[in-house]
């Protein structure tokens, strides 16, 4: 069995996928690279097949009709043979030294007949045109060099949370919890890093800057103008987070706190983007989203609405909305988002 399956979802990725793949090849025979060509109409398929021909024992290519990022990840889960599972988007890449350290750690788990449900590492915002590279680190909240549980972690600070870039799951855990991401939907990475967490019992943190998250393409899904155009998909994912995890049923206080804070930031982003759009239709969608949360879970609604971030997004009138947007812009700079 391979130590790690890395799934690379590709849609019209001809201009940057080679750099991503080349950064992952140093894993050698310990790694299975699964390139999922999600209905591309450029040279993506040919490039993927070229790598499969050159590295037949490492690279596997799956061609499918376009189903979106989530369906590409679903396909990767179904076809993975590695002990652990990682997603690397085709416009991102990994740091080789950190990569080899992670593989060494997994190999040590195997030698000691141990396994953890989730591994966490740092990631770097590679934002185009910005000389300072913000790093999302977790050494202030997670123990290093030891297997731990939710009981051993501290509370994450505002703007610090787990993203797809920082997580490696045990493959069988994803199958056991029956994770299935929706097709033709953006922002499903929030579901990937949220829905499995109640099933995670053991965790290991490696304090290395492994994943390099590129931000800068004009058509990138996290660009604010793009997110506003796709706001219905952001709202869809927001509601799925609420539906798929019943926070009230989580008994571990640290996990419960984390899930609530993660849901809070996603809901704040949805709310602020609806405000930023400035249309009457989207302001109505903002009211509908909060009504949905209230109808679904009154306690959750109160926690979100009357927490600091919720209050900030609920200030009345045009002046209140301006303050909310101003706070959002500050958080963008602090977090590196967008």
The helix/strand order is EHEHEHEEHEEEEHHEHHHHHHH
Strand tally is 10
Biggest β-sheet description: 10 strands, mixed
CATH-assigned fold name of the largest domain = Spore Coat Polysaccharide Biosynthesis Protein SpsA, Chain A
Instruction: Tell me the helix content.
Output: 40-55%
- Structural class of the secondary elements? alpha/beta
CATH architect. name of the largest domain: Alpha-Beta Complex
CATH superfamily of the largest domain: Spore Coat Polysaccharide Biosynthesis Protein SpsA, Chain A
Summary, kept brief:
The protein is an alpha/beta fold. It contains 13 helices and ten strands.
Question: Could you name the key traits of this structure?
Answer:
single chain, disordered C terminus, 338 residues, alpha/beta, ten-stranded mixed β-sheet, Spore Coat Polysaccharide Biosynthesis Protein SpsA, Chain A
Provide the fold topology.
Blueprint: E1 4-10, H1 17-24, E2 31-38, H2 44-54, E3 59-64, H3 69-79, E4 84-87, E5 93-94, H4 96-111, E6 118-127, E7 135-136, E8 147-148, E9 167-170, H5 171-176, H6 189-192, E10 203-215, H7 224-229, H8 231-244, H9 253-277, H10 280-296, H11 298-305, H12 308-312, H13 317-335
């Amino acid at each position: 069995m391979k130590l790690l399956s890395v799934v690379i979802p590709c849609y019209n990725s001809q201009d940057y996928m080679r750099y991503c793949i080349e950064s992952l090849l140093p894993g050698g025979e310990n790694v299975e690279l699964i390139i999922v060509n999600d209905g591309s109409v450029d040279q993506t398929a040919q490039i993927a097949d070229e790598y499969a021909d050159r590295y037949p024992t490492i690279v596997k290519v799956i061609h499918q009709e376009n189903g979106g990022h989530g369906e590409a990840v679903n396909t990767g889960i179904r076809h993975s043979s590695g002990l652990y599972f990682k997603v690397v988007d085709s416009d991102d890449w990994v740091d080789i030294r950190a990569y080899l350290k992670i593989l060494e750690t997994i190999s040590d788990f195997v030698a000691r007949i141990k396994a953890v449900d989730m591994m966490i590492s740092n990631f770097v915002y590679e934002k185009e045109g910005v000389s300072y590279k913000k790093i999302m680190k977790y050494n202030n909240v997670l123990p290093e060099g030891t297997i731990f549980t939710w009981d051993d972690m501290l509370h994450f600070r505002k703007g610090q949370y787990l993203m797809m870039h920082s997580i490696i799951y045990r493959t069988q855990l994803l199958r056991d919890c029956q994770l299935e991401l929706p097709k033709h939907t953006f922002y499903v990475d929030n579901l990937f890093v949220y829905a499995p967490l109640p099933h995670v019992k053991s965790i290991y943190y490696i304090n290395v800057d492994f994943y390099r998250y590129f931000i800068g393409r004009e058509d990138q899904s996290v660009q604010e103008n793009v997110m506003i155009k796709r706001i219905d998909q952001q709202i869809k994912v927001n509601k799925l987070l609420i539906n798929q995890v019943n926070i009230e049923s989580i008994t571990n206080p640290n996990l419960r706190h984390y899930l609530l804070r993660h849901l809070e930031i996603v809901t704040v982003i949805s709310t602020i983007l609806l405000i930023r759009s400035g249309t009457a239709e989207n302001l109505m969608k903002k009211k509908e989203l909060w009504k949905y949360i209230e109808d679904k879970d009154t306690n959750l609604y109160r926690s979100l609405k009357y927490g600091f971030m919720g209050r900030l997004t609920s200030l009345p009138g045009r002046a209140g909305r301006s303050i909310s947007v101003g706070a959002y812009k500050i958080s963008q700079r602090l977090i590196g988002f967008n």
